Amino acid sequence: MDYLIFVISLAALIWGADLLIAQSERIALRFNISEYVIGATLIALGTSLPEMAASVAASYNGKPEIAISNVIGSNILNITLVLATVFLLAKKVNPHRDFFAKDSSWALFPVLIFVIMALEGGFTRIDGILLLLLMAAYLLFLKESGPDVLALEDEEIEEMEQTPFSWIRVAVMLLVGFVLVIVGAEFTVESASSIARSLGVSEWVIGIIMISMGTSMPELIVSIVAALKGKADMAIGNIIGSNMANITVVLGSAAIVNDLKLDMSRYLFDIGTMIAATLMLVFITANRMYSRPAGISLLVLLGIFIHHTLISL
Fold first, then answer.
1. For 55, which of 67, 126, 147, 252 could close a Cys bridge (C-beta 3.0–4.6 Å)?
2. pTM attached to this predicted model
3. Which bin fits 164, alpha (ψ -120 to 50), beta or left (φ > 0)?
4. What are the CA-CA distances from residue 23 to residues 42, 65, 90 (Å)?
5. Residue 62 and residue 60: Cα distance in Å, rounded?
6. What is 2-311's CATH superfamily?
7. What are the pLDDT digits (tens) for 187-242?
């Protein structure tokens, strides 16, 4: 039964992702908004809803380890699995935006804030509010930084212009896409958690591997679909924006619900892996290494992370 649920939920994810990409392109064309901004805001926040649902629920139920480990695991997987898959599957990744100049600080800064707060023993409600304010600052930065090139092909523009823009239609399609993506991820999370509990796996491992894998499925599917359609800016924007949202919105919301205690010394490897993955992302953008070798390097880090987690069971 679990396998059947997985196949159905994966189909829902793919269909939902395709709807999100198509309608996001229509909004970008209508308002001359860059694909990166669409990916880093609308799509990133939408695909981070499963992480938020999982972490807020865990916080409410007094399970801070699941709430925090879900964020750490999702950020690691977004870079080492999602970005690596984009590099390996896309024929050509040639983004128009200079990610290193414009976005590297926003990839690193929330991770540093996470470490500083974790060193103090966890995340309080005040920390949660500060994290949400950091996300507000990021959105303001995107608004003030000016538009990038809107990279739509002539055929795409002609096809979209044949159908008059309708907010009602776009809103309905976006809603359907988000629902399909979120529900698909939810079933993945539930089945994974059920399997993990039956095997007697700890809550931290459930959060950092099983649940984060499930909640990262929307980012994975959306980014792959975007990359295969030649929307590299949207794919990478989704990853950077999702990681930003995971620490600020997801963790911030969970901390506001309940204080999240964390013994950082117990999870140094996992936190260190998140830092290493973020530094690799910055290095890749600095050198514009949007290639298969870079993807393989990220998968190596993912393999080390999974191996360490499994041997520590």
1. 67
2. 0.78
3. beta
4. 11, 36, 21
5. 5
6. NCX, central ion-binding region (1.20.1420.30)
7. 765 666 676 667 777 767 776 777 777 777 777 877 888 888 777 777 888 888 88
